[in-house]
Inverse folding.
C-alpha cells in the first residue's frame, strides 16, 4: 500500500516539476531522494514519510506557486493518508526551506534527513550549477564583486532582492555546511563546501574580482 501511494505521488508531482526551471526540476527531486536514502541508511527513521516529503517539498514553493494554488494540500488529500502521517509530512516540508536564514528548525529525524538532503543539493558542483540556472531564469547578473552580501534579512527581503548569483553563495550556500543536522549530512557537505570555495577563488581570478 505504501509503495502504491509513493508511486501515485511520484506520478502527480513529476508533471509539476517538469514545468519548473532547471534549478528545481524533477532531476532535483531525484538527487534529493538519493541524498535522503544515503542518510537514511545511517539513521532510524520512517522511510515512507521521508520519501513522500521529498517528492512534495517543492510543489508549493513560493518561488513557483501561483496565487490561490496549494498543490501540496491537494495531492496530500488524494493520497488517503492518516491524519498523523499527513501532519508529519507537512511538518517535514515546513522545515526544508532556508528562507533567508529564517527557516523552521528541523525537529524530527525525518525533518533533519530531508532538510540535509535538500541542502546538500544546494552546494558543491550541482549547487553551483543550480545557482546559476536559477539566476539565469530570473535574469540576474552572474557576479557583482561590489555587491555586499546581507547577513540579516527577512524572508521577504531574501526572496525579492535581485542580487547576483555569486552573492547568493555568501548569503546562503556557504552557510549550509555548518547547518547540517545529521552526521552523514555533515560528512557529505565537507567536500562540496570546499569545491565551492575553490570555484569562487578561480572565478575571482578570471574576472575583475581578483583578491
Amino acid at each position: 500500500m505504501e509503495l502504491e501511494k509513493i508511486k501515485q505521488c511520484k506520478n502527480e508531482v513529476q508533471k509539476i516539476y517538469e514545468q519548473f526551471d532547471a534549478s528545481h526540476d524533477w532531476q532535483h527531486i531525484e538527487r534529493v531522494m538519493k541524498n535522503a536514502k544515503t542518510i537514511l541508511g545511517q539513521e532510524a527513521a520512517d522511510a515512507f514519510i521521508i520519501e513522500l516529503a521529498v517528492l512534495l517539498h517543492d510543489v508549493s514553493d513560493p518561488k513557483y506557486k501561483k496565487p490561490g494554488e496549494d498543490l501540496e494540500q491537494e495531492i496530500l488529500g488524494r493520497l488517503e493518508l492518516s491524519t498523523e502521517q499527513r501532519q508529519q509530512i507537512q511538518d517535514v516540508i515546513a522545515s526544508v526551506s532556508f528562507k533567508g536564514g529564517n527557516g523552521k528548525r528541523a525537529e524530527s529525524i525525518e525533518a533533519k534527513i530531508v532538510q540535509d538532503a535538500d541542502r546538500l543539493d544546494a552546494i558543491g558542483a550541482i549547487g553551483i550549477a543550480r545557482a546559476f540556472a536559477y539566476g539565469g531564469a530570473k535574469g540576474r547578473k552572474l557576479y557583482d564583486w561590489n555587491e555586499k552580501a546581507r547577513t540579516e534579512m527577512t524572508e521577504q527581503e531574501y526572496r525579492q532582492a535581485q542580487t547576483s548569483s555569486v552573492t547568493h553563495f555568501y548569503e546562503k550556500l556557504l552557510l549550509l555546511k555548518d547547518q547540517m543536522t545529521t552526521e552523514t549530512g555533515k560528512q557529505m557537505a565537507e567536500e562540496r563546501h570546499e569545491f565551492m570555495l575553490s570555484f569562487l577563488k578561480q572565478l575571482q581570478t578570471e574576472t575583475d574580482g581578483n583578491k
Q: What stands out?
A: The chain has a mean pLDDT of 92. The chain has one domain: 2-206. The domain at 2-206 is CATH 1.10.3210.50 (Hypothetical protein af1432). The radius of gyration is 17 Å.
